[in-house]
Amino acid sequence: MLKLLFIGDIVGKPGRQIVIERLAALRAEREIDFVVANAENAAAGAGITGAIARTLLASGIDAITLGDHVWDQKGWENEIAALDLVCRPANLPASCPGREYVVIEARGFRLGVTTMLGRQFVGMKAECPFLGAERLLRELAGKTDGVFVEIHAEATSEKQAMGWHLDGRVIAVLGTHTHVPTADAGVLPNGAAFMCDVGMTGPYASVLGREIKPVLGRFLDGMPRRFDVAGDDVRMSAALVTFDPATKRAVSCELVTVRK
Question: Does the pLDDT of residue 123 top 80, yes or no?
């Protein structure tokens, strides 16, 4: 059996620090073969930089995925192409810089990693994620032994639909973006691991990683405020998928929570 750990949205410095401090021990303890992380919120809660990406990769992450905040940091569009283990959402326009997927290898198994951006309640210009997934599976045929698809989406229905759409053709379909871990981790009938949202890696004494008071104030009176990243109750939230490399079917999917 092989094991894939997928770490949910890394938020700001607290999220980065817990990954840097705890991932190596977790990887050794659980005998994890692949580690993938969504790090689109790693730079002050919005976007990522080249320096941050390299630090996270050095901590034991094998591949980094991104989402709708991919272009939030100034200059990142000039850095992304040089980072071989970082991929942007694959269904963004083809003219966007960066890779649509990465391939990582462990114990002779080549795992393709890609992200599809949802379109329900998400403002970015993107092609249909279902058609995008079909296109990527064709592109990855012969280049990988199995594929992991992240669905970075707001709507639970869109995430569930993607799971059913790809069940039996990929090893896992795991969701991100809403920052709250869901209680539906499991394996679909044809062998794809699935979870609507693996949660956030960052401060949980917060509103989606941000300080509570200004967010609450915005809800109460609608006035603009600065939403700084919070700092308390820091956790790493991830999904751990165990799969059979011979059948390319998952046998288990579980939520993993590491507290600081």
Answer: no
Burial class (CB in 10 A: 0-12, 13-18, 19+), 123: exposed
Instruction: In whole angstroms, give the CA distance from residue 133 to residue 129.
Output: 6
Q: Measuring CA to CA, how many Å separate 232 from each of 19, 177, 196, 219, 226?
A: 15, 20, 25, 21, 18
Task: Give per-residue pLDDT as tens, 145-193.
Answer: 999 999 999 999 999 999 999 999 999 999 999 999 999 999 999 999 9
In 10 A of CB 97, how many CB atoms?
15
pTM of the model: 0.96
Number of domains composing the chain: 1
Instruction: Copy the structure tokens of residue 235.
Output: 């956790």
**Structural domain range at position 13:** 2-259
- Residue 184: left (phi > 0), alpha (psi -120 to 50), or beta? alpha
The CATH number of the domain where 89 resides is what? Answer: 3.60.21.10
Select which of 69, 152, 177, 179 is catalytic: 69
The rounded distance, in Å, linking the Cα atoms of 115 and 173 is: 10
* The two structure tokens encoding residue 151: 């669905």
69 is known as an active-site residue: yes
Please enumerate in sequence order all residues whose Cβ is within 8 A of that of 206, keeping only pairs 6 or more positions apart, or say none. 212, 229, 230, 232, 233
Other residues' Cβ atoms within 10 Å of the Cβ of residue 128: 12
Helix (H) or strand (E) holding 160: helix 156-166
For 15, the 3-state DSSP assignment is: helix
Structure tokens belonging to residue 118: 């949802």
As a whole number of angstroms, the distance between CA 160 and CA 36 comes to 21
Give Rg (Cα) of the chain.
17
